[in-house]
Amino acid sequence: MRPTFILLALLLGGTSFSSVKLAFAQQTEAPALTVAVVKPAERQWPETVPASGWLKPWHEAVISAEIGDLRVTDVLVDVGSIVSKGQPLVRLADESARAELRKAQAALATAKVDLAKADANAERARKVQGSGALSDEKISDYLIAEQTAQAAVESAEASLESQKIKLDQTVISAPDDGLITSRSAQLGAVVSPGTELYRLVRQQRIEWQAEVSARYLSRIKQGQMASIVSPSGRQFKGTVRLVGPTVSTDTGRALAYVALPPQAHPPIGLYVTGQVELETTSALTVPETALVMRDGNAYVFTVDAGKRATRVGVDIGRRRGSEVEILSGVDPSADVVATGGAFLSDKALVRVEGEAR
Predict the structure, then answer these.
(1) Is there a contact between 207 and 269 (Cβ–Cβ < 8 Å)?
(2) What is the pLDDT of residue 357?
(3) What are 292-306's pLDDT values in tens digits?
(4) How many domains, in total, are found in the chain?
(5) Do residues 67 and 197 both lie within one domain?
(6) Which of 100, 107, 144, 103 is CA-nearest to residue 125?
(7) Do 84 and 118 belong together in one domain?
(8) HEC states along 19-38?
(9) Is residue 225 part of a domain?
(10) Which residue, of 57, 322, 329, 354, is most buried by count of CB atoms within 10 Å of its CB?
(11) Residue partners of 73: CB distance under 8 A and separation at least 6
């Protein structure tokens, strides 16, 4: 019926044979593929800056011995332990410290007895002062002795306090809440003052020291969001805590310190990549599946009113989830082939999914 109709149109309207041939071909050509089409979507996406760097402690506390020549008698925690401020970590032998404490207590008691005697003599000297019963020289000696005895008591009290501190220092405690990352304490070892025993990540806070290009330095601000991806594929979110004031003369990059939440617990010492989010801007996006890569160039296929698929070169930008930003090449009102573009050729006839045949 259709060829007859086209021939009749030729006879009545004077249409050329070539036009009839084209019309006939269009009527008989089968669609190459059934495709789903989408409209490019307008999104509000943050502009991002790529960065990479090490995961390091926010603050690391070095826990050392303050008293020396004592033996380690107890090692109470190990690497990986989460400790609280004031929690005992190591105990040292305290016999000598306790003996010195008792000696200081005895010295204080003796000094107090001497002070009481000196006070009594000085009080009698004051009562007879000016009466001639005692010479001025003797009175002066009693008063000076009282002052000397008082100073001796104060010195003995200070010595006792010092010995109490040394006894307390035989128990080495955590200076803050945190995570133990290193242990040097060994049972039976004799430590010296300043000997490192543990390292502690304060408050379990870990930060990402992200290296960014210096050209972005003025746009990175405190409080901006950042994200990293660990080698295992796990993603962590954080906020910019501090932007370094200097730029490396070797790499031309600066450091942004990104604080990670304590519950994240990423491994310390990893070198990871990520991005820092700047201001939010509009993005024209299509599904990532709509992209067709050929010869290193990006294309999408659009479908016109005649159901013809046209290959269009595009410039792509940011990626977010399963969507990609189109910087140029596609009209926002165009119908874009969502999937299957790799199987299409330019100007191929297609059937749009969901439309009646």
Answers:
(1) no
(2) 44
(3) 998 889 999 999 988
(4) 4
(5) yes
(6) 144
(7) no
(8) HHHHHHHHHHCCCCEEECEE
(9) yes
(10) 57
(11) 91, 92, 93, 187
Q: Work out the mean pLDDT of the chain and round it to a whole number.
A: 87
- Cα 140 from Cα 143, distance rounded (Å): 5
Q: How far apart are the C-alpha atoms of 184 and 274, rounded to whole Å?
A: 34
Let me know if residue 114 belongs to a domain: yes
Question: Do 208 and 271 sit in the same domain of this protein?
Answer: yes
Question: Sorting pLDDT into bands at 50, 70 and 90, what band is 189?
Answer: very high
More confident residue, 11 or 168: 168
Domain span holding position 231: 49-58+203-280
| Domain-embedded: residue 346 | no
Q: Distance between CA atoms of 332 and 39, rounded to whole angstroms?
A: 7
Q: Which two tokens stand for residue 4?
A: 């007859």
Looking at residue 126, which CATH number applies to its domain? 1.10.287
pLDDT of residue 14: 46
Q: What percent of the chain has pLDDT over 90?
A: 58
284 and 40 in contact (C-beta within 8 Å)? yes
Nearest in space to 316 (alpha carbons), one of 289, 284, 342: 284
Q: What is the pLDDT of residues 24-45, one digit of tens each?
A: 444 556 777 888 899 999 998 8
Last residue of a domain, one of 261, 280, 299: 280
- Per-residue confidence (pLDDT) for residue 17, from 0 to 100: 45
